[in-house]
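ok, trying the design again with the full structure, not the truncated one.
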């Protein structure tokens, strides 16, 4: 197979390079904007209790269950000032004009004290989304942000705003990371290859791989939602594998030239040796990362998909476009290098120097080196024993972002309860003589659960569905709050009920991960053993 590929590249290197240029151009044109097609959220198992609770509540109310969009409006003149009322009405009109908005609540309509800050200088305008997806809510919130952009008196918060602002941070950070990564990679390549032309090849391959991964992700979004976080993996892993495989291929090609082979023969040997390693490496990585697709959580499924795409794209580019470029360059791959470095390139294999001495040290003391290395790696990994996992909420945003400021202000200025909020969705009819009393009694029992600081009166929301809000003292992902979820779910009741919210979703996420972990590990082990057996 590799001889056949080498023959094709040696016959039509320009054709392969032109095809690569066309591929990179199309990838940049059609895949460059993939971030706009990727989805927010996707951290829940849709078959979990928390997801079922959200779906039942949203079906009954016709609205999203996450609290909607919250506008913090500064009214310097107080609520009686006409200018303050005009500012609130402007925000209300912007919300009402959005087709995804179900209803809007303001202080001037309800005169609810919880919508007015303790100093009377700020008020909240709350818009409740219709029953739409996470991504639709983010798009609608972005439209609302654009309408109110430039108004210093308005800040937007809420779940959709948190996701939208996280998306902006992610895409911005990725752009900055790429601008930083390519110069660093070039300098490292220059240090390794000791030549300008050779040093340019790994970043070139990395750029093509990343663009290609973006193109394929864009194609997948047409048939299945893909998480925005797949971009992080596609960029980081794409650059890493592209550089790694480029080092294999370019180094081997230069070594074969130094041994006296011509360019065509050097390409054949390079593909049979380094190319074979690249192929099996990419298949092993694709199988290992692809094991994430067994989890019924879109965030992890997207990561697994991106890993497969990146590994196979890096392999394809490294085995086709890169060898074709090397074939055209030939000995010129060593061009634009200092004379001293050029002499080193043509020198026979090293018989002195640090790496030569180090290799002999390893071979003389293999057991001691192996034990010492294992101890060092275990010591470096010990901090992971204290790792704390969480999911995504407003605390992941920097303090200066609008959604974080709105969340903090609701607690400090509007008397919103601190800690974690969750809700219980009860399936019970409203008119039966016994059901309302049973629901009320159940809500009263929840008040006695440890670390529960408040339980709001049950509300009938339609469709034989009741809604009970429960407040816990800890944060969304604190161990005490997660125990509250388990304790509430263990309560006995004469009706069916579902517990949902940020903390219950995290509990269900952990349970889903645990239930699918064995299958994912089995796939990794089996695929690695089979592929490494075929390699060796």
């Amino acid at each position: 197979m590799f001889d056949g590929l080498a023959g094709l590249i040696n016959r039509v290197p320009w054709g392969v390079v032109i095809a690569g240029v066309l591929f990179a151009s199309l990838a940049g044109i059609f895949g460059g904007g993939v971030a706009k097609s990727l989805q927010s959220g996707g951290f829940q198992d849709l078959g979990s209790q928390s997801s079922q609770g959200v779906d039942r509540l949203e079906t009954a109310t016709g609205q999203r269950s996450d609290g909607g969009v919250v506008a913090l409006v500064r009214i310097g003149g107080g609520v009686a000032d006409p200018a303050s009322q005009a500012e609130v009405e402007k925000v209300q009109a912007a919300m009402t004009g959005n087709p995804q908005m179900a209803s809007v609540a303001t202080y001037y309509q309800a005169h609810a004290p919880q919508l007015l800050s303790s100093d009377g200088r700020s008020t909240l305008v709350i818009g409740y989304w219709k029953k739409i997806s996470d991504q639709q809510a983010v798009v609608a919130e972005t439209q609302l942000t654009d309408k109110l952009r430039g108004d210093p008196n308005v800040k937007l918060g809420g779940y959709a705003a948190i996701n939208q602002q996280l998306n902006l941070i992610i895409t911005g950070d990725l752009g900055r990371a790429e601008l930083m990564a390519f110069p660093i990679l070039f300098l490292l390549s220059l240090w390794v290859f000791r030549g300008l032309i050779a040093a340019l090849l790994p970043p070139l391959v990395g750029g093509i791989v990343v663009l290609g991964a973006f193109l394929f992700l864009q194609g997948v979004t047409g048939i299945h939602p893909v998480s925005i976080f797949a971009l992080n993996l596609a960029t980081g892993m794409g650059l890493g594998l592209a550089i790694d495989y480029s080092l294999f291929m370019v180094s081997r090609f230069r070594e074969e030239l130094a041994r006296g082979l011509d360019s065509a023969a050097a390409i054949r040997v390079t593909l049979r040796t380094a190319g074979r390693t690249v192929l099996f490496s990419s298949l092993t990585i694709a199988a290992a990362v692809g094991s994430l697709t067994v989890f019924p959580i879109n965030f992890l499924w997207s990561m697994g998909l991106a890993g497969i795409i990146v590994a196979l794209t890096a392999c394809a580019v490294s085995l086709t476009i890169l060898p074709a470029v090397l074939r055209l360059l030939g000995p010129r791959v060593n061009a634009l290098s200092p004379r001293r470095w050029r002499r080193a390139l043509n020198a026979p294999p090293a018989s002195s120097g640090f790496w030569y001495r180090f290799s002999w040290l390893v071979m003389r003391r293999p057991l001691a080196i192996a034990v010492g290395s294992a101890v060092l790696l275990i010591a470096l990994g010990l901090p992971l024993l204290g790792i704390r996992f969480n999911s995504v909420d407003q605390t992941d945003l920097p303090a200066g972002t609008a959604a974080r400021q709105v969340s903090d202000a609701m607690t400090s200025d509007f008397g919103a309860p601190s800690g974690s909020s969750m809700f219980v969705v009860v399936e019970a009819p409203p008119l039966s003589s016994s059901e309302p009393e049973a629901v009320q009694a159940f809500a009263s029992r929840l008040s006695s659960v440890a670390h529960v600081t408040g339980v709001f009166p049950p509300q009938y929301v339609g469709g034989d569905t009741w809604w009970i809000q429960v407040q816990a003292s800890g944060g969304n992902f604190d161990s005490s709050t997660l125990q509250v979820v388990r304790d509430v779910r263990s309560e006995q009741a004469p009706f069916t009920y579902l517990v949902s919210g940020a903390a219950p979703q995290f509990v269900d996420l952990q349970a889903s991960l645990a239930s699918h972990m064995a299958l994912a590990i089995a796939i990794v082990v089996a695929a690695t053993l089979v592929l490494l057996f075929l390699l060796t």
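Keeping the full-length input from now on. The longest strand covers residues 122-129.
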